[in-house]
Amino acid sequence: MKSSLKIAHLSDPHLTSLHHVKWDELLNKRVLGYLSWRLxxxxxxxxxxxxxxxxxxxxxxPDHLIISGDFTHLGTANECRETETWLNSIGEPDxxxxxxxxxxxxxxxxxxxxxxxxxxxxxxxxxxHGNAPDFPYLRVRGPVALIxxxxxxxxxxxxxxxxxxxxxxxxxxxxxxxxxxxxxxRIVVLHHSPHSSSFRRRLIDADALLANLxxxxxxxxxxxxxxxxxxxELKAGAHTIPVFGVPSASASYGDPxxxxxYYMYEVNQTPGGWQTRVTSFILNQETQRFETxxxxxxxxxxxxxxxNS
Length: 309
Description:
Blueprint lengths: L3 E7 L19 H15 L2 H13 L4 E4 L9 H14 L5 E3 L38 E5 L2 E5 L17 H16 L3 E5 L16 H8 L6 E4 L6 E7 L2 E7 L15 E10 L2 E11 L6 E2 L5 E6 L7
Parallel strand pairs: 1-2, 2-3, 5-6, 6-7, 7-9
Antiparallel strand pairs: 1-10, 4-5, 8-9, 10-11, 11-12, 11-13
Helix pairs in contact: 4-5
């Protein structure tokens, strides 16, 4: 088994168009989202910038790609078909692991006609986690266990909150324990931040997630949703878990604080544990090139024990 892995992470591509939305799809909360898209959001995300982000990312030659949700604007069936085509065009399911975002479950909808179309990219490996068809899923790539969670739930108008639910959190704890016993580096992937201060955009059961992380811990937790660079530490019992939020990969706001970009996580196994190098690649608004700098690189060590082989 490889002792290192290079993992790219992007989020919130909002890659779809609503030009062909049907009127009967807007007879609910979606009408507000559609008006937002018409007035602002369609100019806040660019398919051309998304393509440039992907091209720059590909040049880094990662071993795996994580996309942490919000592929669509309103989660319509047509948008989910468009996302399916896009995913198929950029890589095989073995190379890409995804989780849905709140925009992908904007309202209650037929799973098979919407995000169910992406299931090949968000299911456990054969033989892992009992081949469970739902979340959390478990994928093992080299020394890394990728554990995908869904925080995407339909919400009331003007809310973009997320929720895991008791059963998903219970299963997560079991996966963290068993993958730790296997000596794997555990990355937890979700859309919502576990430490958001926004009442309208928070993860509702973040405290329950924290309580269940306190026992087994995790080496890394990554998310989207915030459309900006975020780095924090999550205190879970005796563990300190690094948390990284990535900007939108297609952002065209013109706001330097929300410039588009992606992250690269380089995981290396060492005799004393794990070493992780996190590098952010952000579009420079002046040069129009994706750039990184020493200040945008972090290296940290994880002290979780690696069982003897």
